[in-house]
Amino acid sequence: MPPKARQSRAAKADTKDSEDVSVEKLAAKHWQGKSVKWAASVVDQIIEKVFGSNTVHVHLQWLERQQYLEQFLWPHYSKGRQHESVVLSCMLMINEKYEQGLLTTMWTIFETGESLFGNLFDDVVQLIIRVLSEENVCIGQVDMTSVVRMAGVQFLIACFGSLETECVRKQCMGLVGLAIWYHMEEEARNSLLSTVPQLPKFWKHTQKGFKENKRVSKAEAEQNCRNRDFVPLLLRDLVKQSASLEHQMYCAKVLELLIDLESQLPTRRFLSPLLQDFEIIEECRQRMEDVEDGLCKQLLSRLDGRMQFPVTDVTGHAQSAAQVREWQLERIARWQLQAFQADGELFEPIVIASAAQLGSAQSLQTLLEPMGMEQVQQLAQMALVRTRSAVTGEEQPREMLVRSLCARMHADVLGEQKMWSPYPDEQMVFGKTVGMAETYGRSEAGGQLGYGLLGVPKLGLQYLSEQDFLKRSFELLQLETAAELRAEIQEAVRRMQPHEADGHNEVIFEGWTRMALPLSVLDVVTVQRPHVGENVPARVQARLEVDLNSYTDSIKAEWKQVRPHDVLILLTVRQSGVMRVRGCQVEAVDIPEDEGSSVLGFRVLLDTAQYARDISGNDDVYGGLNVVLRRQAQGSSFKPVLETLRQLADAPPALPKWLAPVVLGYGDPAAVRQGDEASAVFMGDTFVSVKHIEESFGDYGGVEVAEDVEAETPMVEVEIPADTAETVQVRQAGQQSSQLPWLRRRKHNKLLFTPTQVRAIAEAGRRGLTLVVGPPGTGKTDVAAQIVSNLYHAHPQQTVLLLTHSNQALNQLFERIVALDIEPRHLLRLGHGEEALDSAERFSNAGRIESFLERRRELLAQVQTLADSLQVPGDYRDSCESARFFYVAHVRVRWDAYLRKAREFPFTRYFQEQKGSNEPLFPENCDEEAVARACFAHLERLFDEVAEIQPFELLQSARERALYLLKRQARVVAMTCTHAAMRLGELQQMGVRIGSVVMEEAAQVLDVETLLPLTLSRDLERVVLIGDHNQLPPVVKSPGLRAFSRMEQSLFARLIRLGVPFVELDCQARARPSIASLYRHRYRCLRDLEPLVTQGAYARPNPGFGHVLQFIDVADYQGQGESEPSRYFYQNLGEAEYVVAVYQYMRLVGYSSEQVAILTTYNGQRALINDVLARRCRPYEQFGMPRAVSTVDQFQGQQADFVLLSLVRTRNIGHIRDIRRLTVALSRAKLGLYVFGRRSLFEPCFELQSAMQMLLANGDQLVLEKALSAKDTKNKNGAKKSIVIKDVEAMGKLVVEMTSF
């Protein structure tokens, strides 16, 4: 329809009156004021102005930040009277939110209007169908046809990526339902319908929805037809546009959508057969032959791989390599039988061919080559291949039919995993994909709309199988490693300054770098034969040599510190650039004995799969390598992780059967429990008293405590009914406290856990999966420590694996565990960071062995003391073996005689000495037998410990002792998730039986790093994940992998999205109630733990400040707001000066530097603040440096009494828009929070709105209290005088005045 016919008179007049009105002025007039002034013509004007400009993406981002959707479009959206411009604008705004990663808030505005969202979705589908039907869409004077195409596909990508949202899922699934089979060839459709008995019935029922009848209205029938026809229309349009250079980005987006649909079982179930029937891969491939755009071809190959993935489309069952092969043979046999029945003589080459020949594309093409067009068409029909194009309706050319037949007979049999190499090569490191991932989002590369796109896999809500998850994760982790290597290699080569000598191939390096050296020698010395059934060498060893003669002593020392298992990168460097990139792992370092020698040698292991590929070519890859690059300490961790992924992908599924369906995204979220929910749960010393037990279950019908339960520090097990109206049963767990407390002083829990914390601890004690969400300050660490303690006592034959994201968090948690009633000899801390533990004992492998040997001496000394008390001659201190002989020959004999009443208690003298007092061992009126049994139980524990230590006498090497310690002694093994992923293979080989996995900081751990430890044992009984998905996700450095591939998602957050039940802790004891209110709305019911946060310092105002929290508006300083000295290195001098001046003021009025943390949202601003502090504070004792100057991301998990927060940005909100980062930023402060930023930028932001309202309630200028100090809260007259600081200059002037006194 022409634009003039669509415009009403009012719209024309409005357009004429506001020809020169900017988008900003339209926004201010119509929705940014006190009231919203709706006019559909305004939407037309905005679209014309946005798409008539050269900065489309910038305008769209600005509109999204100004709440164009929330304040203007959506409140006035209704079915039946919407302009195309309104539908398109809603699409564009939703797409902007998706592109910016605002997934946590993207769909919240539609939750209250589910039916209206259905209207919007249907309107979008209708609008896209118009474009797919080759009808132009014009808004005003602008042709929006191509925009509708691109925006519509991106809208569907966003929707299908959010299927956990009910209103979205309901609409999306209609587009990929059984109805789309309407467009398949009838014979192919009937063949598929016959595979599942229920499908024919469902198909008949679906057919009834296409026409108006008693149960289906006309509108519903029309919508059903639109849903039925949409995907086939989109496929036909894809094929038509695929040959056009102009529409390559659109085609790439459609392919991205199809890949997304093929990557989830619910959406691929009926789509995959349709794609195969349409021969979409071959149709597109044929038309793209002359197109140079590598991205489209890359995505088409990825779509082909998704379609060929070994999973049954209709049922969703994953297939093993054997099942895939069996399916292929059945299909080939059926095709051969049909050919024989049709004309065995005519099709003799096919009938008599082997399955291997027909399954090979090259062999099948050779067999079909002599056949004519008619014969090929007949064979195609037998294989259910279309002989006429589903797109054009024309007869398919012979070449196309042959390619389709080859594709139908081929099967993608698993086994390629063996050829995966953990080391990225030069094609990956310097390829387009890594480059595009690093520059993702920096340009409008997606056409006018600037939608980002990469040819890499995505991590989604669901996975096709365990192998699918591992394959995607492997590729993404390898790409992230390649991106890191790219930067390191480029920097090293730049510094080395390679130069080729004239007339020679030799490369001379005129520069130098600490991290890379020229190679003197590289020899491949050992290539072992492949194992049976494999085609890659079993082992490839090489020797490297470098000459350190011309380098400084510090560089020599650094290279000599390279250790076994470190990764080195080998390069072929020419003057023109880097030609080859290979990796190797250090097996041994050969340091010359002659101190005068400067040659350093390395024995290294090359990757066997990479080596096999290299030698299969004609190039001498290893002869040309001339540079070796080392990486920083953590740079070698990628290799064992990727190797573990490769091994798991090549093995049968390793996840426990009860856990796999939920982790992959398809199991019933509620079915994560194993066993009887009503069974008793061991709670250990969770409760400090019986009263505490009763208070913890106050919501139940009652609490029945058994008589033998001790009143104080009871050890109990609890039977918690599913119905809260019933009674909770509490009974004693194990033995009561010792009759002789002086023998062993048991550590007791002293924390008064809240009812919700008790519930979390109880849930974690059951078999199955437990999720615990811990908002800031709710005691996640204390809960995790108690869970570990309870599991340790409840399951003495199992090992508890304790995991965290960071070493700092692991040490904090481990220190809490050490303080509980757990035997130190059963604790083991692996990995780096153990030295930072605040404990007298060492818990590393070496530390535990040393402690065991020291403990051995102590125990044997006690045995000797016992022998002396019994007057048994001999020296029993020399070995554990002699001590155990003493137990059998003397101790046990005397005890048995005592039990027979043949003699008095034989150990009185020993225990009297142990008691260290003159009081009798058996006081009057005591239960003599109970005291005697308690004494002997102590002796049994002593000799049991001796027996446990005895193997350390027999095992001589440190490795043997470490293996024994891990496999037999350690019952609580703690490490970071990265270390667990690195050592997974070793732990599996040792056969460590992990019964429980407890992970804290689970929301900060990558999906794959969480999953890997869960594959350690098929006997795994319980998994406890503790974290907070409302705070920051895992760190992924690559912008493209983070934004496009969603690589930053954690398993914890994904399980929450899938609807797995969780326990949310609800009492915070960190911050003032007013500060906690800034982020309270992010949680179900976050209360304040009184009286902890309402008394003491929490009840008093902050001395020197007018308010305990405030937003301070910072204008341009010296004519400038934010600056960007280098890419992404954002700084704001005005805010830096202001924050430092406030810190100086705080120090002057009496605050301790340890109370203050200065946080910012960018590394650039952190560096600038440090510079200002170095000039203004560090040299002066009265100021000094604050406790921390950090980014918000780095400060997660930490806290401070007072936080000064700099938001930096003045032109664009930046990544504080991620509400998870905002939650972290606002929850670090306990007593005072002062935020510095640009009010006009942050106040309108939808995600920040709730917090900004509370922060601005106290105004936007800093209010101080004059003449107050940290010690005095009132001046002599008892009155307070407020000072309003207008700007940074005024704050600086005040500080100068105060320092002059």
Classify the helix fraction into a percent range: 40-55%
Based on CA atoms alone, the radius of gyration comes out at 36 Å
Q: Uncertain regions: pLDDT < 50 for 5+ in a row?
A: 1-19, 442-447, 1273-1277
Shape: globular
Number of strands: 32
Keywords, separated by commas or semicolons:
1301 residues, alpha/beta, 7-stranded antiparallel β-sheet, globular, disordered N terminus
Question: Would you summarize the structure shown here?
Answer:
With 1301 residues, this protein is of the alpha/beta class. The protein is built from 53 helices and 32 strands. The radius of gyration is 36 Å and the shape is globular.
Textual characterization of the structure:
With 1301 residues, the chain is an alpha/beta fold. The protein is 44% helix and 12% strand. It is built from 53 helices and 32 strands. The strands form eight sheets. Strands 12, 17, 18, 19, 20, 21, 22 and 23 form an eight-stranded mixed beta sheet that branches. A seven-stranded antiparallel beta sheet has the order 5-11-8-9-10-7-6. A five-stranded parallel beta sheet has the order 26-30-29-27-28, with helices on both faces. Helix 13 packs across helix 14. The termini are far apart.
